[in-house]
Amino acid sequence: MKLVAFLLPLVFLLVILIAETVTRITEGAIYEDLLQRGVAISRVVALSSGYSILSGDRLAMDSLAAETKNSAGDIEYLSIRDTEEMVLAHNLIEERGKKHAASIRVKALATFLETQAYEVVRQGKELIEFTTPIFFAGKRVGTVSLGISRDSVLAAQKDIRKSIAVAAAVFLGIALLGTFAIASFITTPVKKLSSGVNELASGAPFHPIPLRSGDELGELTMNFNRMAETILSQKNRLSRYAKDLEESYIATVRVLAASIDARDPYTLGHSTRVAFLSCELGRRLGFDMEEIEHLEKACLFHDVGKIRTPDEILLKEKRLDPKEIGLMQRHPDDGADILRMAPSLHRYIPAVRYHHEWYNGTGYPERRKDSEIPIHAQIIALADAFDAMTTSRPYRKALTSGKALEEIIRFRGTQFSPELADAFVRMVRDMPPMEAVDTDTASKRGMAL
Fold first, then answer.
1. Which of 64, 115, 327, 351 counts the highest number of beta carbons within 10 A?
2. Phi/psi of residue 131, each to 5°?
3. What is d(CA 344, CA 339) in angstroms, rounded to the nearest whole number?
C-alpha cells in the first residue's frame, strides 16, 4: 500500500503534466502558424496592389482578391480599400464601391511590423483579421484587410485535447489496476515507463516499450504505447498542417510571380521557364528532391523584387539609359527585402539576391565571385540568361537555342561558372529544341512541385 500510495500520485501528476504540456505546445504552434500565414498573405497582397490602386486597375485588384480567397478554404474575405475606407476590391463583387464596414474587435493579438492582427466578430462569425497598410513609393495609398476563420484552428485544438485526454484517462485507469495487482513487480516497469515518457517529451525517436506480461501491468505498458502513438500522430498532423501552410505560401507566390511576369508581355511565363531549366540542371548535378524543391521555389521568387520597378522602366521598348539600369539593378535587393518579411522564406534570400552576380566578380549587387556566389544563384543565372536571350524583346529578336548556347560558352569563366556552364550546355543540347517546347507541359514534367 505504501508503494501504491507513493506511485499513483506521481503517475497521475506525470501524465497530467505531459498531456497539458503537449496540448499547450501543439495548440500554440497551430495558432502561431495561422498568424504567420495571415501576415504573409496580407503583406503580399499589400505589395501587389499598390500600383493597381494608383493606376486604377480594378480588374487586377478583383483578380487578386478572388485568387487569394480561393487559395485557402479558411479565408473568409479579402478587402482592398483606399485611404477614404472605400472598398476598391473584394472577393464579393457586390462589396466593391461600398464603405468598408468596421468589425467588432474582441481582442488585439499582435503587431507584426505594419500589420495588425485582431480577434474580431464580423456578421456573427469569429475571425482573425489582419490589417496591412498599402504603400507605394513611400506614400500610403490604401489598406488591405484579410479575415481568416478561427473554426479550423478551434477544431484542430479540440481534436488534440480530446485525444490526449482520452489517452491520459485510459493510461491512469490501467496504472491504478496494475499498481494494485502486482505492486511487488512494479519498480522495473515504472522505470521503463519513465524512460519512455522522457524519450517522448524530449522529442527523440520513440521506441515502444516491449510487453513482458499479459496482466494489468502489460496492459498499462500497451496503453502507454498507444498514448505515445496518439501524441506522435498529433505531431505528424501538425507537421502536415505546417506543410499545408507552406503550400499556401507557395500558391500565393505563384500568383505573384505570374502577376509580375504578366506585367510585361515579353516575359510572360519567364519564372516558370527558369524554374524548369534550373530543376533539370539540378537533377543532372545530383541534387536530391528536397534541394530541387528549394531551387524551384527560389526560381519562382527570383524576380519578385521587380514588383517595385516602375512600369516606365520595366516596359520600356528601347534600351535603358545608365540611370534606368541602376534602378533596374535594385530588384535583387528589393526581392530580398520582400522575402525577409516571412521567416519561412529566408532560405531563398541568397539565391534571389545574388542571381545577377558574375563568376569573375563584376556583377551586382555585391560583386561576389566564384564560390562566394551560392550555387542556386549560379544555376538561376544561367537559366535566366538563356531564357532572356531566347525571348523576343521590343529592341531585339529572340536568339535560337544554338546561338544562345554560343553566348553562354563565350561568357564561360566570366559571367558563368565553367563547370555549370558546360553542364547547362550539355543539358540543353540533349533536350528538344526550346522553340518547340510546350512550357506548361515541360514545367509540370520537370519541376519538383
1. 351
2. -120, 125
3. 9
CATH 3.30.450.20 occupies which residues in the chain? 1-244
User: Amino acid identity of 193?
Assistant: L
Residue 60: all three cell numbers together: 487586377
Q: Dihedrals φ, ψ of 139, to 5°?
A: -115, 135
- Parts of the chain belonging to CATH 1.10.3210.10: 263-446
Cell of 207: 521506441
- Chain centroid to CA 398: 34
What is this structure's pTM? 0.47
The C-alpha cell that represents 336 in the structure block: 530580398
Q: Which three cell numbers stand for residue 155?
A: 477544431
Q: Domain 1-244 has what CATH class?
A: alpha beta
User: Rounded distance, CA 79 to CA 191, Å?
Assistant: 58
317 — phi, psi (to 5°)? -90, 0
| Sequential pLDDT tens for the chain (449 residues) | 666 676 677 777 877 787 778 777 777 777 888 888 889 999 999 898 888 888 888 888 888 888 888 888 888 889 999 988 898 998 888 888 888 888 888 788 888 888 999 988 888 888 899 999 999 888 999 999 999 888 777 777 777 778 777 877 777 777 777 666 656 555 666 566 666 666 656 665 656 666 666 666 667 777 767 777 777 677 677 767 767 776 776 677 677 767 766 666 556 688 889 999 999 999 999 999 999 999 999 998 898 888 888 888 877 878 888 998 999 899 999 999 988 988 878 999 999 999 999 999 999 999 999 999 999 999 999 999 999 999 877 767 889 999 999 999 999 999 999 999 999 999 999 987 655 444 444 444 434 43
Q: Measuring CA to CA, which residue among 21, 64, 49 is closest to residue 168?
A: 21
Contacts of residue 157, Cβ cutoff 8 Å, sequence gap at least 6? 26, 27, 30
